[in-house]
Amino acid sequence: MKRSGELDTSLLAEIQNEFEEITVVDEKGYILGSNYKKLWDIFPFPEVISSFEEVLKGGRSSCKVKEEKTYLLKFKRVRDFILILKSDVSLNEEFENIKKSVVSTLSHEIKTPLSSAVGNLEYLLLYGNCEEREILEEVLEKLRELNSIVGGIENLFKYSHLNFSWINLRPITEEVINELRKEAENKGIKLIYKLVDVSLPADKVLYSQMVRNLLSNAINFTNRGRVEVELTENYLRVLDTGRGISKELLPKIFDRFVKGEESSGQGVGLSIVREIVKFHNWKIDVESKEGKGTTFTVHFKKGGRNV
């Protein structure tokens, strides 16, 4: 008969198929089956100690460590024990580096003609005799906005180029709301917002893009009713009374190229939101009911990234 604190070996066998190495420790960090060795004796990294403390509190955690290769360590509490599941993510990291290079190249190729178009329009507005001046000014504004978006997407894949500084999120949030207000009004949607001054370390362009994607998404999928934006010291919340997300789609809603049947987009907006949230060390969750609406909440982490 199995003792209450004994770990089920069948569970270990099942997990072993997915991970190349499993370490089991008790709540004090001692490795089972070793001669009083502790976890940090074989993984002497501060990230491991932090993750171990986190799993004791929350039941799950993870971190990456670099030895000869890059490994992902997933910590999971199972009754009185902690499982540390080790997997080699070196190839994934190599792929991410290739992806960063491709995105950087594509962004450059797009930004070059954009900059040229912006320059030509600015010249026409300054020195040309244009009867449709308002139209040109609107086109120029949209081109500048597109240029910022392309730069923001490029920044997603360049940690070293992220422009993190202490910024007030309120005016940036309000600017995006004002930008999309007409779109909401044209659909008869009531746009409600409640904002407070919140200063956090963040990248201005990326934060603006995150709010724009969430709010634009809410307006696009709401045919009547309201869209609410709430900014507090702890979170940004975007709520709508639109069509909602199906139960089948909800778990995959942040994946790339995932979209509903009625969506006319490319299915990348929410995946960009997730990346922006992740790069700021924030968290995002979503609640939705079909026919009732959807709520996205971005939870800020005090301190976030280092400035």
Automatic annotation (TrEMBL):
Reactions catalysed according to its record: ATP + protein L-histidine = ADP + protein N-phospho-L-histidine
Keywords associated with the record: Kinase, Phosphoprotein, Transferase, Two-component regulatory system
Origin superkingdom: Bacteria
CDD domains assigned: HisKA (cd00082)
Listed PROSITE patterns: HIS_KIN
InterPro entries associated with the record: HATPase_C_sf, HATPase_dom, His_kinase_dom, HisK_dim/P_dom, HisK_dim/P_sf, Sensor_HK_Regulatory, Sig_transdc_His_kin-like_C
Domain Histidine kinase as annotated: residue spans: 105-304
GO molecular function: phosphorelay sensor kinase activity
SUPFAM superfamilies membership: ATPase domain of HSP90 chaperone/DNA topoisomerase II/histidine kinase (SSF55874), Homodimeric domain of signal transducing histidine kinase (SSF47384)
EC number(s) reported in the record: 2.7.13.3
Name of the protein: histidine kinase
